[in-house]
Amino acid sequence: MEPVRVAVYSPDPLTVAGLSGALSAEAGIKVLEGLPSSDVDVRIIATYQLTPEILALLRRTAATRVPVVLVVNELTESQLLTAVECRVVAVLPRLAVTGARLAHSIRTAAAGGGVLPSALLGELLKHLEHLQRNVLAAQGLNAAGLNPREVDVLRLMADGMDTAEIAGKLCYSERTVKNVISGITKRLNLRNRSHAVAYAMRSGMI
User: Fold this and answer.
1) pLDDT by residue (tens digit) across 152-198?
2) CATH, residue 90
3) Whole-angstrom Cα distance, residue 48 to residue 12?
4) Do residue 189 and residue 113 come from a single domain?
5) Which residues contact 152 (CB under 8 A, 6 or more apart)?
6) 135 in a structural domain
7) Range(s) of the domain holding residue 183
8) Which of 1, 67, 134, 185 has the fewest CB atoms in 10 Å of its CB?
9) How far apart are CA 152 and CA 15, in angstroms?
10) What is the reported pTM?
């Protein structure tokens, strides 16, 4: 099994050395020097606080689509939301970091999961509830970004129906069905009808 390739960054060289040393004893993890732009599975960014410089770094690295484990003293709610937008999938308080906990967060991040302290998780869930109630629901959308009419069309597409059959089933014009499908693919940045059906299935809507 290939090791998880990890890049460690901190403004403080001693922190980099400490985290790298803590990971050296962990099996299945390979620490790379610096902050390489490619050939890395997980990034660790360690800092005392989210300064504008660190936030700028998070935004730049987010474009690489590599998950980030953030080691930090504390986060405000707004900073947490910004961090999540920047591909941060795990947050570890600096004072609680051990080699084992760091390795667990790295493996979880590499597998597509996340690790958040309970207090931060609660803040994130409250924000998502607010988003669902005041933003999505107000526009007639669900958490997947779909309205009921779009869900109906996608379900029939998944059943193999073509545009004319969907129009007849839902009592819409064919033009309306085409507009619904076009609206879904453009708004959610999907490639085609098959991609739209796959998206709806993954989100649990059909």
Assistant:
1) 898 898 888 999 999 999 999 999 999 999 988 888 888 888 888 88
2) 3.40.50.2300
3) 10
4) no
5) 170
6) no
7) 140-202
8) 1
9) 53
10) 0.59
